[in-house]
Design a protein that fits this description.
By secondary structure, the protein is of the alpha/beta class. It has helices at residues 5-11, 17-30, 34-39, 49-59, 74-85, 91-99, 105-124, 132-143, 146-151, 157-169, 179-187, 198-210, 220-229, 253-264, 272-277, 293-303, 319-330, 343-356, 365-373, 391-400, 410-419, 435-441, 444-456, 462-477, 481-490, 498-509, and strands at residues 41-45, 69-73, 177-178, 232-233, 240-244, 268-271, 286-290, 310-312, 334-337, 359-360, 378-379, 402-403. Strands 6-5-8-7-9-10 form a six-stranded mixed β-sheet, with helices on both faces.
Length: 510
């Protein structure tokens, strides 16, 4: 319908504007139909004189100027408008003519509820249903209105989040998938999981619950670490691991770096990129893993080159840390793993036992209760976790209600490292007796001397020079050399002549 110029001007005037807006809101809320028109009414608070006169004209009932609220039945308003604008000019057509078609909010709510229920059913149908963290995540999305908000959008974020979580769950434990690749496989868009996106936050909410965290951690570094716990890598340069005393075969530059750092008694920070581009082969033996850098820093200061291999996770293990742990396991090393005495620490240790066949290192009920008795504990937070290697430990944490940080055991941990056996590698000739292999195994200063002597050697003496240097490398690479030298200096070395050792090494090299 079309309003006359006079009718349009009147209905847009001060006496009608608030009244018609209130009527529109009521009809959109309850439904623009005859049922609403017949039973509903609208009211105006603190009406103006123009509004009061309009209502008097609609209803035929006088309202004094002191009235604080005016009420009008929609049926009366509809009849008055039909009288002014003709049979087709009732309330609903007039409102549509003035400000466009009315929204059918009941129908919208019904469609929204249907879409929300469909999203909930989609999440419930996942193979991950039944796992505690996933069910909690799904229920939280329904309870806090997240599913409702997602139901209003055209982008199927909840379904995409389910696809991402399922893809991560199906990724082998030792495999790492770049985040853009994961996004492309699950969402068809390499940028779908970019930091700060709604989908990223939705997935991280689930991964935080999976990791036993109360909420998604703040900060890019913490979020990256959370992705890595699930096998997704955001940046292979930013994923790092801190190492001390880990000696490796010299067949890659990364292995030589680690050995030189171990010989110098210095910690070394490796990136995932370095570990994947130049894989390392650690020498067989015992490898210790701690959570707090303070432990490694103290071991570096007090033990130096004599420190057995020590890896620091610096909190939740990174992808680089897991990659290095896998390399040590494949090299027949035994991993001794520990973390803080809290729920996250139990999860970290349990995962290491499962993933890397690690042995818990002072992660016992006795160690916890002893540390707890010394004081300096903090309230235990987060969701409880089991300790499969010693179920009584989780019970003790629950009963104590206190967390003990790893630094409280520093004295005991250093004592373990001092007493740790670092057996000689099992390979009878770990370093080939070639010029390149010997040079690669030498520290930079000795390497220059080696090249000088090789350059000055004659064809008759070059083999003897190479053998002498190779024997030197063999002795230096023996993990017991530093302890033996210290024992000789202290006069406590066993009575085995050095000439005997050198003769045996020569025989092994022939």
């Amino acid at each position: 319908m079309n309003l006359t110029e006079d009718a349009d001007a009147e209905l847009r005037g001060p006496g009608w504007q608030r009244l018609l807006r209130a009527a529109r809101r009521r009809l959109e809320r309850d439904g623009a139909n005859e049922s609403t028109l017949s039973r509903a009414s609208v009211s105006l608070a603190d009406p103006t004189d123009a509004e009061r006169r309009t209502v008097i004209g609609l209803t035929g009932s006088y309202r004094p100027g002191t009235v604080k609220r005016l009420s009008v039945r929609l049926a009366d308003l509809d009849r008055a408008l039909r009288a002014r604008c003709g049979p087709e000019g009732g309330l609903i057509p007039v409102l549509a003519c003035l400000h466009g078609p009315l929204r059918d909010r009941p129908a919208e709510r019904a469609r929204l509820a249907e879409h929300r229920d469909h999203l909930a059913e989609t999440l419930t149908a996942s193979p991950l249903s039944g796992q505690g963290w996933y069910d909690t995540w799904r229920d939280q999305l329904a309870a806090d209105g997240t599913l409702t908000r997602h139901a209003r959008t055209a982008t199927p974020l909840a379904a995409q989040a389910r696809a991402v979580l399922e893809a991560l769950a199906n990724t082998p434990g030792d495999c790492l998938v770049p985040l853009p690749v994961l996004a492309e496989r699950t969402c068809g868009d390499t940028k779908a999981l970019t930091p700060g996106s709604r989908l990223e936050h939705l997935v991280l909410r689930a991964l935080a619950l999976r990791a036993g965290l109360d909420a998604v951690p703040a900060g890019h570094t913490a979020r990256r670490a959370l992705w890595e716990t699930a096998g997704a890598v955001t940046d292979d340069l930013a994923s790092q691991v801190l190492v001390l005393g880990l000696r490796c075969h010299p067949d890659t530059v990364t292995g030589r770096w680690l050995t030189e750092a171990a010989d110098a008694g210095l910690s070394f920070r490796l990136t995932l990129r370095q570990l994947t581009a130049h894989p390392v082969r650690p020498l067989p033996g015992e490898v210790y893993v701690c959570e707090n850098p303070a432990v490694l820093r103290t071991a570096e200061a007090e033990l130096g080159p004599a420190c057995p291999p020590l890896i620091c996770t610096e909190g939740i293990p990174s992808a680089a840390c897991h990659h290095l742990a896998t390399a040590t396991r494949e090299a027949d090393c035994t991993l001794h793993w520990r973390a803080d005495f809290d729920w996250t620490g139990l999860r970290i240790t349990a995962d290491a036992v499962h993933r890397h066949a690690a042995r818990p290192w002072r992660m016992t009920t006795q160690a916890y209760t002893a540390a707890l008795a010394e004081g300096d504990s903090v309230p235990l937070k987060g969701s409880p976790a089991p300790s499969p290697w010693e179920p009584a430990l989780a019970d003790a944490l629950h009963a104590g209600g206190r967390a003990v940080m790893e630094e409280r055991l520093l004295t005991r941990l250093l004592a373990d490292l001092r007493l740790a056996e670092r057996p000689i590698h099992s390979d009878p000739q770990p370093i080939p007796r070639t010029q390149n292999a010997v040079a690669a195994a030498l520290p930079p200063a000795q390497r220059m001397e080696f090249y000088r002597e090789m350059g000055e050697a004659t064809p008759e003496t070059i083999g003897h020079v190479l053998t002498n240097w190779w024997l030197l490398v063999q002795v230096a690479g023996d993990p017991r050399t530093a302890r033996t030298a210290a024992a000789v200096k202290a006069g406590t070395a066993p009575g085995r002549p050095a000439s005997t050792v050198m003769r045996e090494l020569r025989e092994r090299g022939q």
